[in-house]
Model the fold of this input.
Amino acid sequence: MAESGFADPRVCIIWGMSTRRLEAYSENAPGPFHVQKDLCIVCRAPESVAPDLIGFHRDPSGTDAESHCYFKKQPQTPEEIDRAVKAVWANCCSCYWYAGSDPKVKKKLKEAGCESTIEE
Ligand code: SF4
Done:
């Protein structure tokens, strides 16, 4: 079982008013931060605040139809965690999620106004 509590950290189920299936991009580095598939509008904002953590896949067709960002590295240090939280804050398509259990990370996300990105 992964740290997130889900058997596969790249696929999770969120239960709420309705059930919706969230699937993360396969390019996300294994770990609690991830970017959900198929919501990209190519803002590229998270890269600008955390270029060491966030990568960008450019659709080779040139149309951007399959372009998207992803966590190329999971944050390890306090500084990297701060940048990961900034990346979550900066994402413009509600596609960033934290599926971990670290109370310090959750506190930082809440302080940044990103509580809704925490998977419980
Ligand atoms: S934050 Fe969302 S819209 Fe912006 S580049 Fe990443 S996946 Fe695309």
User: Anything to note?
Assistant: Residues 35, 39-46, 68-69, 91-93, 95 surround iron/sulfur cluster (CB under 6 Å). Residues 24-117 form a domain with the Alpha-Beta Plaits fold (CATH 3.30.70.20). Residues 58 and 64 are 7 Å apart (CA to CA).
